[in-house]
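Action item from last meeting closed. Structure (137 res):
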């Protein structure tokens, strides 16, 4: 769906083809990690893909409903914040021409200290075991 100020979920960031491939691989990595955790359960790859999409869509929708400046904390993970960047003067690097950017509606994320600490740890040999141990904390 469309979210005023954000547009559609796909248009939040203007992608290059390479970035789209990287974004899809990130989504696939999340789905694969969840499949590894719930292997043999009622969750199918298609259901998990839908679940991942629904989570991110819900973050955008919730922040949009709350309005600029709103935060959405996720326990043991971090906090999403709806921010508005004011227009500013910038310079076109190719022509040197001074231009004005438009107002930008963005979502910012700040991870909690426990998440930052986990990122500093040496990676284990199995990513699925680290995913299951972090979710049980």
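Sequence:
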């Amino acid at each position: 769906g469309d979210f005023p100020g954000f547009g559609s979920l796909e248009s939040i960031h203007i992608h290059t083809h390479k970035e789209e491939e990287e974004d899809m691989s990130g989504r696939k990595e999340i789905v694969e990690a969840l499949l590894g955790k719930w292997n043999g359960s009622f969750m199918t790859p298609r259901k998990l893909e839908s679940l991942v999409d629904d989570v991110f869509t819900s973050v955008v929708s919730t922040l949009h409903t709350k309005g600029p400046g709103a935060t959405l904390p996720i326990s043991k993970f971090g906090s999403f914040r709806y921010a508005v960047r004011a227009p500013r003067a910038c310079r076109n690097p190719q022509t040197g021409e001074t231009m004005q950017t438009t107002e930008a509606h963005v979502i910012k994320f700040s991870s909690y200290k426990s998440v930052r600490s986990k990122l500093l740890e040496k990676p284990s040999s199995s990513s699925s075991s680290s995913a299951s141990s972090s979710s049980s904390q």
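Note appended to the action item: The longest strand covers residues 78-85.
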